[in-house]
Amino acid sequence: MKDEPIMGCAEENPEEKPKCNPFGTRFLTDDAKVFEHNAWDDVEWSEEQQEEAKRIVENQKTMKVDEEKAIKLLSSPADQWDAFYAHNENRFFKDRNWLLKEFPELDVNEQCNSKKEKVEILEVGCGVGNTTFPLMQVNNSSPRLFLHSCDYAPNAIRVLKSQETYDPSKMNAFVWDITQEAPEDAPKPESLDYIVCIYVLSAIHPDNIRKALSNLIGLLKPGGTLLLKDYGRYDLTQLRFKKDRLIDGNLYCRGDGTLVYFFEMDELEHLLAEYRMEKKVMHVDRRLIVNRAKQVKMYRQWIQGKFLKPL
């Protein structure tokens, strides 16, 4: 995206809004200038917008997925993603080259003082490597970094490991449904410095999220960090769903059958507090994306957080 906002550093006081905004520094102070850039940060909704969003979601409840289809989708969520990657291979998602803007911790060479220190990272829901390979690239394939990548779609792991840049001496890609016990090729308990979850928890049925978090947190070292970004309640994606997409609550299915859940920030925070994870920073990224050619405004809401495992 052109004119992507420049990201800054994250304030570590969890009780305050970050003084150095981790999500951007372009703020819309004059509505007349809205189409001068492609994106604006921390755009607050009016009361009218909030009420309209609630009305849309309430109306979706009258057009829910039929029960038989819902049962089928919920019984095998991994199958839907596996079929997705079998069809799309590595042609669908773009590389996440914005990673260090929102998660500067992942710059291994900058964050660690000892040149001999080993840093182990697990990327969850890795797909075909749209985070894996950019992360290795920005770290210049540092010998200090070992990157684990997992996905519950076998076809995603197949495609990832088939890439020329996949290096088993620095990477470990494996199949794992994080709501189940970790396989033998997963990292050892309390071995990881960072776990990266980008649009991962939203792909899990809400009833299974606690089990997934328990499994993941068990792999973090004491003092290790969980980095997450996921869909916020009333994001444009949620409001655009039409008939036969709502399963229940705030859980939906896309046209390809994959699941997506939309979180409240307090909801995620309370879930992580159950596992004694210490909030470093948490923020709702309310971003206004603009199509300047068509003069269209699109309101996005994501939740980003950084949580520490107690020593």
Can you give keywords for this protein?
311 residues; alpha/beta; Rossmann fold; 8-stranded mixed sheet; 3-stranded antiparallel sheet; 26% helix; disordered N terminus; METTL2/6/8-like; cytoplasm; tRNA N(3)-methylcytidine methyltransferase
Overall tally of structural domains: 1
State Rg: 20 Å
| DSSP E strands, number | 11
The dominant shape is globular
Region (Disordered): 1-22
Subcellular location: Cytoplasm; Nucleus
EC number: 2.1.1.-
Protein name: tRNA N(3)-methylcytidine methyltransferase
Write the layout of secondary structure elements.
Elements: E1 39-40, H1 47-60, H2 67-75, H3 77-88, H4 99-102, H5 108-111, E2 119-124, H6 132-138, E3 145-151, H7 154-162, E4 171-175, E5 192-198, H8 209-217, E6 220-231, H9 236-240, E7 246-248, E8 251-253, E9 259-261, H10 265-273, E10 278-291, E11 296-308
Parallel strand pairs: 2-3, 2-5, 3-4, 5-6
Antiparallel strand pairs: 1-10, 6-11, 7-8, 8-9, 10-11
Structural description of this entry:
- The chain is α/β, with parallel strands linked by helices and 311 residues long.
- The protein has one domain: Rossmann fold (3-Layer(aba) Sandwich), CATH 3.40.50.150.
- It is 26% helix and 24% strand.
- The protein has helices spanning 47-60, 67-75, 77-88, 99-102, 108-111, 132-138, 154-162, 209-217, 236-240, 265-273, and strands at 39-40, 119-124, 145-151, 171-175, 192-198, 220-231, 246-248, 251-253, 259-261, 278-291, 296-308.
- An eight-stranded mixed β-sheet has the order 1-10-11-6-5-2-3-4. The chain has a three-stranded antiparallel β-sheet with strand order 7-8-9, with helices on one face.
